[in-house]
Amino acid sequence: MSDLFDDEPGNVDTRRSGGRARALVITGVVLVVAFFLLTTFASIYTDRLWYSEVGYSQVFNTMLWTRIGLFLVFGVFMGASVAVNMYLAYRFRPLFRIPGGDGSVDRYRDAVTPIRTWLLAGVATVVGLFAGTSAIGHWRSYLLWRHAQPFEQTDPYFDKDISFYVFSLPWWHYVVDFVMAAAIVAVLATAVVHYLYGGIRLQVQHDRLSGAAQVQFSVLLGIFVLAKGVDYYLDRFDLVTNDNNLFTGMNYTGENALLPARNILMGVALICALLFFLNVWRRTWQLPTVGLALLVLSAILLGMIWPAIVQNFQVKPTEADKEAPYIQKNIDATRDAYDIAYVDGEPYTGIPVDAPDEGTSTAERTRLLRALDAQLLQVPVVDPKQVRETFEQRQQAFAYYSVAPVLDVDRYEIDGEDTPLVLGVRELDQEGINPDDRNWSNLHTVYTHGEGIIAAYANRISSNDANGKMVWAEGIESDNALSEIEEFEERIYYGEQSPSYSIVGKAEEDDPDVELGLTLPADAVSEEEAEEEETTYDGEGGVEIGSTLRQLMYAVKFGEPNFLLSGRVNGNSQVLYNREPVARVEKVAPWLTVDSDPYPAVVDGKIQWIIDGYTTTDRYPNAQRESFDSMIDDSLQQDTGLQTIPTDEINYMRSAVKATVDAYDGTVTLYAWDEEDPILKTWMSAFPDTVQPKSEIPTALMEHLRYPEDLFKVQRYQLARYHVTNADDFYQGSDRWEVPADPVSTSSKQPPYRVFANNGSGDSQWSLTSVFVPRGKQNLASYVSLDSDATTSNGELNPDFGKLKLLELSDPNAPGPGTIYNEMSQNDEVLESLQEFRVSGSTPPVFGNLLTLPVSDGLIYIQPVYAVKAQGESSFPILQYVITSYAGSVGIGENLAASLADSLSLAADTGTDPPDGNGDGQGNNNGGPDGPKQSIDDQIAEQLRLADEAFQDADAAQRAGDTAEWAAQIEKAERHFGNALALIEERDAEAAPDDEPTDESTASPTDEATPEEE
């Protein structure tokens, strides 16, 4: 007690000043390690829960144990190699100190010796951790090697199955490189120990290495050089996948210089390794040093200088002849690798034989108009990119809903006929929520999902400006042609714009619902009358987080304590995450390259996201390697499917898998599509029972499968060059094509379009289309399309699905998209029609997709124009006109039929609304009882319009099975058509005497020049 109160205590224990700092450091290290372990465990644990919930536990287990195995095997191997060699260097250190040593080394040795065991363990552990972590990244290579399936094709140079290059060679390269790295690290670690303990004596003139050091270095360097020899052996096979100046694959220099050089270097390396091993007994460095110098010199002379000499002095003077056989093999391999080997161009004139000229009568022009109308009835004139704002108006009352920046186009059977639709999924957009309401509870438990799908006809136009002239396709989800299920699940919890995570589910059944959704009142007549309602998610998707442990793990995963603190998280709660369709497919199939554009479809009363999955490699022998990103780039491209590709470059691609993600419960289903693909077979062997066979695809889903867009872009990119199959022509490059620039966005390539298009034989197909122009030129070179409909009319698999058809233009002056766009935009009639939108203060007109379509044996170009009327009902661009170009003539109208009529020099006002008349077709004061008399051309146009309407009504009656109505409408159409012909004859008869038309104000230039020829 006295010591406590003494002013100057005599003996007080004082702690060392560094003790507290050491304790803080230890505490900090423990906390950091604990945090790392906790976050790592939380990540693995929550991943296990997620994979279990989606039904792909096997994928998680296979990846986890493969990574753990690789980490342990390679980490332990590297760590053990370093530890054993460091121990041997210490164990066989010199027992007596050599005079003349460096005194500083003694100080380091004295400092290290007391902790040598811990230091050895620490160095080995750190090196092992780095090596094991590096090995984890090669799990794909290991599984491909382990489960390799044969291609049953061999390369032309080494006669090895292609599977060796794709599956085995990358793995063996990694193993050999790892052995060389381990040998070098062991050499460095051994050198440090020998230096500290006297095995290396740099200060003396002779015997600078102890006997033990010489043995150890000889063995390690021998292993390194031996591995290098094996590396040279493997490098030989890389010659068929290396890039050179002209192409990918073996070339003349490769076969005649590099291949012999690597064979020689392999032999030199083996001899050099043998010399190092012999040095274990000889204990002299003369021969190993000579051998190593010879290897380095040979690598420079044979591996670098000699190939350069061959290339510059043998190949370049006669490059075309020398490289011809190698180019031919590159052509063949590339066409095989990208599945375009079967594509041969077909000659196509591009000039219609029935194109009107000055001598063509109006009746003949009218018949041509009818024929074109029939072929272009289903062409989507609505541009999915330009009508987004119109779709946004459909949920204007609810700012927290939105649609994708670029909408999707699909076809549905409506009234018995395939009809193109523009589709937009009404997804949740939390950016539209009032900032005052953006708290954690609202963002993650109230605003949780989107609601429904919005559809509009892509081939129909309304006169209602308020609707953006869109004709809305209400209720497609319950159409009998689409689904036999009466109930439609329209809630969207999994979509392209879904929040990162949402917590759903209520504690008790009687608790109030809190999630905001939409409902349609019973008396509502359109979706625009939808109202807010509260709901609760009751689907199977989502991980249950009722327990405290799971809540803690997800609090760590998302860095959010409200998982533990919020009353909205209860015993029945589920957490929904990984909600973007592409991300979900990548998680369950990490070996797939996923298409960048998932698209929605209504299947059996549900909204399903459909995603195309590709198998790719950059190791296909002799096939051209290109950047995947550059091949699919165009004016609409927003993202790429590169997430699962180890490298951006590929030289093989197949549409291997069709994947679906249920928009409500997130169910992911994978279906094998190309069941013969060896890469798919290999991954199915590595992850059995994760991909269902093609035969399991439901019929309702099959009807909405389409040809993958990214694959089509890759194939058209390769066809631009590899449509040439002769090596000499290929080398000259005079017939090389390119995808034209998008006239509307000149900095990017024109995207492909999905349309009902003529395939060149007169049949109309749901197609994916594009065009080519000669490289650096503007004229049209060819037109490529494929049948994108996976099923036939009777629901069976379409045998022609995905078959590319290439039409090569025989006319070298056929205008390309850029030329046509310039002609359209500079046409006097177009300029006059668009003048009202070019005045000061008005929004300038926006030109939509420029479609190039074959009709009969000619080509027609179609382009919609969007603009805002100064006094219009809408504040966003709407479809105002359609411009067409056919047989060199440009036309413009408010719809496609009117524009075609204008391009054929029929009635000038065909594209405008007809006057209010009695429609009797007799030409007697047809403008109404008090109106002015119509010109004869106006009367003709009116009769043709009425005939067209009657034919459309007849088609509808025929689809409905109403034979009587069909006959009545046909009779009505024939009557109106007859009236039009009678009026034409009357007008031409009056004009015949003086070669002048009866009504100058409305006669077309053609009619002025030439009377009708019957």
UniProtKB/TrEMBL annotation:
Gene Ontology CC, one term: extracellular region
Positions of transmembrane segments: 23-44, 64-88, 117-139, 171-197, 257-278, 290-309
InterPro entries, A to Z: UPF0182
Highest taxon of the lineage: Bacteria
Keyword Membrane: yes
Region annotation (Disordered) ranges: 907-935, 979-1014
KW Transmembrane helix (keyword) present: yes
Biased composition (Low complexity): 907-917
Keywords for the protein's UniProt record, in alphabetical order: Cell membrane, Membrane, Transmembrane, Transmembrane helix
Protein's UniProt name: UPF0182 family protein
